[in-house]
Design brief:
Blueprint (H helix, E strand, L loop, with lengths): L2 H5 L22 E10 L2 E11 L4 E5 L6 H9 L6 E6 L2 E4 L12 E4 L11 H6 L12 H15 L14 H13 L5 E5 L7 H18 L2 E6 L2 H7 L2 E6 L2 E6 L1 H6 L4 H6 L4 E8 L2 E4 L2 E2 L6 E2 L4 H6 L1 E4 L4 E4 L4 E11 L4 E7 L2 E7 L10 E6 H8 L1
Parallel strand pairs: 3-8, 3-9, 6-7, 7-8
Antiparallel strand pairs: 1-2, 1-4, 4-5, 9-10, 11-12, 11-15, 12-14, 13-17, 16-20, 17-18, 17-20, 18-19
Helix pairs in contact: 4-5, 5-6
Length: 379
């Protein structure tokens, strides 16, 4: 059914909760304080602290092995921290001495592998969590209504009698989502749920997950290594590297105001141009015609100390003559809406996103300018 029809089913999410469920009716806030996790001599998490607000969509972003899945599993209760605490709504859930069992945390989990029962139909897979001991207070009617609400919100009503083997990858992912939300959890954890899907399905499923967030109002913690997923869906993004948090901020803050060299290169794919800072003016080492600064504007101290200026690929302009970084086009990839170039400037290789009318061939000599600097010079 369409999203509008699904919204009409929203009152089903107001069903009474089992009497044994002690958490409050609102969403969950999560407080992670100084969490460390050791595996022998290896430090998977290193003094991680972050606050997750009620109803917030948080994406944990980072390369493989950075600790993002370990952090998610620590929140869920699958991993006990070596040090620090995890509190939910002020209640201690995890520490080196306390570990509330996973089944008592009142959360939903969506795994990368979907983890569906192959011998159960769509309806049976979705209904399965409601048959647990913690939901024994639910009446058959309440179970049926909860399953119907979960199927309606994920558009699975017409597929309810199919087995997982008869479904596409996107449909199986929707079943996993419906199963995770059928208990109406206030906290929903997702571990790279779209990594097994093709590019078109990923785009479609992003909208499905955003719709689930709006329908349920649940707090979502979403682990991914795909920066486009994090930027498209999250209220805030946690960037991790080697078990530590590099930066926390909104997608706009992460993209336009990176606070570390890693955040700049990993998320916004910044080129780091070498040179020197004089106040808020940057003079590039390899720029031709040094009578104008290559860039202007305040930057974080880490860029000043490293003697580099972060320039995103779309901030570059290319011309055949003028002042700027002289280079040569060494690679060209047509992308439909724009063209991606690799430009060699001395020993540096820069990535440039240019419009379709800025058509250069491999081997062409070009001059790179920073778009803001070009506009300031023109003014």
């Amino acid at each position: 059914k369409s999203g509008q029809k699904n919204l009409g089913r929203l009152p089903l999410w107001r069903l009474p909760r089992p009497r044994h469920c002690k958490r409050k009716e609102s969403n969950m806030s999560v407080s992670i304080k100084n969490v460390t996790k050791m595996y022998g001599d290896a430090r998977a998490l290193d003094n991680v602290s972050v606050e997750i607000a009620d109803g917030e969509f948080i994406a944990i972003l980072g390369p493989s092995g950075c600790g993002k899945t370990t952090l998610l599993r620590t929140i869920s209760g699958f991993v006990r921290p070596t040090g620090g605490t995890v509190e939910v709504d002020g209640r201690l859930f995890s520490s080196d001495k306390v570990q509330v069992p996973v089944e008592q945390r009142g959360l939903g989990m969506v795994f990368q592998s979907f983890a569906l029962w192959p011998h159960m139909t769509v309806r049976q897979n979705i209904e399965f969590p409601l048959k647990s001991r913690r939901n024994q207070a639910l009446t058959p009617q309440q179970r049926r209504q909860a399953v119907e609400a979960a199927m309606a919100s994920t558009g699975l009503e017409k597929l309810q009698d199919r087995l997982p083997g008869e479904l596409s990858g996107g449909q199986r992912q929707r079943v996993a989502l419906a199963r995770a939300i059928v208990e109406k959890p206030a906290l929903l954890l997702m571990d790279e749920p779209l990594s097994a899907l093709d590019a078109e399905l990923k785009i479609s499923m992003r909208k499905e997950i955003q719709d689930i967030h709006k329908l349920t109002g649940a707090s979502i913690v979403y682990v991914t290594h795909d920066q486009s997923e994090a930027l498209a869906m999250a209220d805030r993004i946690i960037i991790m590297k080697e078990g530590r948090i590099e930066q926390v901020g909104t997608p706009e803050e992460i993209y336009y105001r990176p606070k570390t060299l890693f955040a700049a290169t990993f998320v916004s794919k910044c080129n780091l141009v070498r040179g020197r800072w004089e106040g808020d003016c940057f003079w590039a080492d390899a720029a031709a015609g040094q009578n104008q600064p290559f860039a202007r504007g305040p930057v974080e101290s880490c860029f000043r100390e490293a003697g580099v200026c972060p320039v995103r690929p779309e901030e570059f302009t290319m011309t055949r003559i003028g002042m700027g970084l002289e280079g040569r086009v060494v690679n060209r990839q047509w992308g439909g809406r724009d063209i991606h170039y690799k430009v060699e400037c001395g020993t540096e290789l820069f990535t440039v996103y240019a419009g379709l009318f800025d058509n250069y061939a491999e081997g062409d000599r070009v001059v790179l300018q920073r778009r803001e600097a070009a506009r300031e010079i023109a003014i």
